[in-house]
Amino acid sequence: MxxxxxxxxxxxxxxxxxxxxPLFMSEYGGTFWMEDANARQKQDAGWRRWKDPESExxxxxxxxxxxxVLLDSPHFCGYCYTQLTDVEQEMNGLYTYQREQKFxxxxxxxxxxxxxxxxAMEK
Length: 123
What we know:
This protein is an alpha+beta fold. It has two helices and two strands, in the order E-H-E-H. Helix 1 (56-72) links the parallel strand 1 and strand 2. Helix 1 (56-72) runs parallel beside helix 2 (105-115). The protein starts with 22 loop residues before the first strand and ends in an 8-residue tail after the last helix.
C-alpha cells in the first residue's frame, strides 16, 4: 500500500458512512488526572501528547465539554468514556485504581449532571 491508496473499493458502500444511521462514540476522553505529581511519572508516555489539566475544575470542564459536544450532536446515539477507573498505564478514570472517587462531590455532581442531559437525538 502506498500513500493515496484507498482502504476500500469505491464501489463498496459498506465502508462508507451515509449519515442516515446513528453513530456511537466507543471511546473518548483521555483527561489524565492525578493529584500526586510523583505518581504522574507512571502515566504511559505514549498517551502524553497534550498538556495535563492543572486542577480538578479543568478536568471536569474537559469532561463536560467533550460530553456536551456528543450530546448536542444529532448524529450520536451513545457514548462511552474511556475508562471508569485508572488502570496500570493510564490515569484517565473517574475513580482511582483502588476504586476511590477522584473528585469532590461538586465535581462528581457536574459529571452526573451532564450525563443526565437530554441528547439532541432524543429531541
